[in-house]
Amino acid sequence: MALQDKYKQLTDAATAAGVTGLQVREQDNVLNIDGEAPTGAVKDQLWDIYNTIDPDFRTGDLILNINVSAMAPGAKAKVTTEKTNLNIRKGPGTDQPVIGKAAHLSTVTLISKTNDQWWLVRTDKGEEGYAYAQYLTVE
Amino acid sequence: MRKNFFRFALICVATVVSLSMPSCKGGVKDADIEKAITEKVTAMPDAAGVTSTVKDGVVTLAGEFKDDASRTAFEAAVKSIAGVKSVMNNSTVAAPAPAPVTITADDPLMKGVTDATKDFPGVKAEVKDGVITLTGDLKRSSLPKLMQALNSLKPKKIENKLTLK
């Protein structure tokens, strides 16, 4: 119960921001918060709160797994790498060959989701392949 | 004259008697019903979180049962108590216990960790029994991005021992 209290501000904010399917479960002294945020901005806001409650995520007592429902097939996503181009790969995994690049801040079309990490996408140049979901932001 | 006096006296006595026992409708007192309910609660551990009030033979139940079966059974038990006219069942059923958290097995987890840390060359990561341990160096501004990627892999725990710059 103590962990739920520690992260109450986070779960309250998730509820207020319209996170759906919110699950808060404690297992082996780790709090697991799962849910689907309507937008990437809401996800970022929740991560900011996490970083405030537990600076630099040092304690290791929370797994925050928030997906973004706007990440859906057909949606346009911006390539939000730090500054480099995003690798487009033949399959879902960094062990897969690179078959193209999506430019930093260019737009790709989401085709289908493999898992929480990988999406099949089409670049603005028409190349199709797998991209790492962490660097795709639907606006 | 004498006959009329007796009739008047009889009516008086009947009125006094009926007024003196207003809580005795149906012959069973609310207090007796409450006592019987308390006995039922003692006999049914599932009903421990339930409260009841009784007024004129009408029982109102409130509180929470662990499942629908115990709620229905308790309501039936209360209805069977002598003197109970009706039951207002305002009690609720507890939400089912949540499914346990699924932790990703070490092999797929390690593959996911490799993908997530690929763009952060200073970061070293180990996976053991679902726990990701991070060591090495990272820019503080890159930490949320890395942590978001690692959290989405559904590990058991993340030990962040990174030196942040």
Structure, explained:
The complex is a heterodimer of chains A (139) and B (165). Chain A is built from three helices and ten strands, in the order ααββαββββββββ. With 139 residues, chain A is α+β, with helices and mostly antiparallel strands. Chain A has a five-stranded antiparallel β-sheet, with no helix packed on it. Chain A has a three-stranded mixed β-sheet with strand order 1-2-3. Chain A has a two-stranded antiparallel ribbon with strand order 5-6. In chain A, helix 2 packs antiparallel against helix 3. Chain A is elongated, with a radius of gyration of 17 Å. Chain A starts with a helix and ends with a strand. The mean pLDDT of chain A is 95. Chain B has five helices and eight strands; from the N terminus they run H-H-E-E-H-E-E-H-E-E-H-E-E. In chain B, the strands form two sheets. In chain B, strands 1, 2, 3 and 4 form a four-stranded mixed β-sheet that branches. In chain B, strands 5, 6, 7 and 8 form a four-stranded mixed β-sheet that branches. The longest helix of chain B has 19 residues.
The structure class of chain A reads alpha+beta
What distance lies between the first and last C-alpha atoms of chain A, to the nearest angstrom?
36 Å
Number of helices of chain A: 3
For the report, how would you describe the main beta sheet of chain B? Answer: 4 strands, mixed
Kindly estimate the percentage of residues of chain B that lie in beta strands according to DSSP.
15-25%
Helix/strand layout:
The complex is a heterodimer of chains A (139) and B (165).
Chain A: H1 2-6, H2 8-16, E1 20-27, E2 30-37, H3 40-53, E3 62-68, E4 76-79, E5 86-89, E6 98-102, E7 107-113, E8 118-122, E9 128-132, E10 136-138
Parallel strand pairs in A: 2-3
Antiparallel strand pairs in A: 1-2, 4-7, 4-10, 5-6, 7-8, 8-9
Chain B: H1 2-20, H2 30-43, E1 50-55, E2 58-65, H3 68-79, E3 86-89, E4 92-93, H4 106-117, E5 123-128, E6 131-138, H5 143-151, E7 157-160, E8 163-164
Parallel strand pairs in B: 2-3, 2-4, 6-7, 6-8
Antiparallel strand pairs in B: 1-2, 5-6
